Amino acid sequence: MKKGNPIALLPIGVFLVLYLGLGILFEYGLKIPMGFYNIPIVVAFLAALLVACVQNRSLSFDDKLVLMGKGVGDKNIIIMILIFMTAGIFVGVVGRSSAESVAYCLLSLIPARYAVAVLFVVACFVSLAMGTSVGTITLITPIALAVAGASDFSVPLCVASVMGGAMFGDNLSFISDTTIAACNGQGCRMKDKFRANFAIVFPAALVSLVIILVISMGQASTPIQQDYSLIQIIPYLLVLVGGIIGVNVFLVLLIGIVSGSIIMLATGATAATDLLANMGSGAANMFETTMVAILVSAICALIREYGGFDALLSGIKKVFKGRKGGQLGMGLLVGAMDIATANNTVAIVMANPIAREMARDYGISPRKTASLLDTFACVFQGIIPYGAQMLVALSAAHELGYELSAFQVIPNLFYPFLLLVSSLLFIFVFPERKADRA
């Protein structure tokens, strides 16, 4: 590991000051409605990128461009961008009316007071089968928004319930990138990591479900009877079934796009020219989300080269001592990486080498280490306002006509916060037994 340089982390601080600082000033200082929503996140990241480019005088600007290109060209970033684009086209094709049909059908089949809880449970199952939180949020958020619009449920509560369920599966799924990265990095079997993980996440999910039920029952309206088109439900039904049985997210979205296009044209709901225009506008609405992914990957490449992440890794390793402290240090290590990169898979990959050393020093089993890395990465990824999960949810809301801020959603993200509580309990109150450390 190269020598760390804490100054290299300055771009992250610049972004947080601009984005969070201005948001707090606008929302609470100047009392501007939707103050946080008015902060241009792309501009804040551009300012952070400028700071990262000015640092590290030992490299020419051309060399820095090469580093940024390598960062943007990472496989995970490319996959994420392709999901964004495909998801935008899907939402553009099916439009608001299809999501509303699904919502009205859902509300006609189950008591209204259980609708938000059902959204959470469905998101848990879809993400567990698909292994992707972003894909799950893409598929279910339009339905959640339509449920909120058709009832008295809070829009942030509905969106946050989907996000919480999506992070549940992202953390547990055998085909999730985070699970694969954590298990490969620590040399443990996926089923062993699953067992260690399940004991932590299940109580958090159960308590989250109870809280959602209690809150939503207080908000529930009388049953809503609205006409809906059964045929317009088909695209969402196909993608949800595909997600639950574990079909690749790209294939699921492609099925949704093709089936949605056929139905919209066959029923006369959309003309052919309008359908193409809707595809274009759907993809265009993912512009900000895509740009954030690109800018974050470029900034991280420069910070890594300048020694910022090495400073962070070595600092955490020095501060936390003892077995319990080592486990907490691992969690905070991967959490700090996630805050810096806004990508839980990348955060796990970066934290793996140091976590492996800490596990060896403190006598922590590989499965416990993999579980901690994956869990804490999902905790932080599930709540940061500039993560892909949040941005996709907000983009879907904007596409369907809802002005929603990340800071309206965050207080309703019960699952990630309870997952943090559960993780801390399993570190300090219910530690791993000696017999389980092999």
Describe the structure.
The chain has helices spanning about 10-30, 40-55, 60-70, 75-110, 115-130, 135-150, 155-170, 175-185, 190-220, 230-245, 250-265, 270-285, 285-305, 310-320, 325-340, 345-360, 365-380, 390-400, 405-410, 415-430. With about 450 residues, the chain is mainly alpha-helical. Helix 7 (about 155-170) runs antiparallel to helix 9.
Query: What is the residue-mean pLDDT, rounded to a whole number?
Result: 83
Number of helix segments? 20
Largest sheet: none
So what's the overall shape?
A: globular
User: How many strands in all?
Assistant: 0
Instruction: Estimate the helix proportion, in percent.
Output: over 70%
Distance between the termini: 28 Å
Provide the β-strand percentage band. Answer: under 5%
Topology as H/E string?
HHHHHHHHHHHHHHHHHHHH
Task: Please identify the structural class as seen in this structure.
Answer: mainly alpha
Radius of gyration: 22 Å
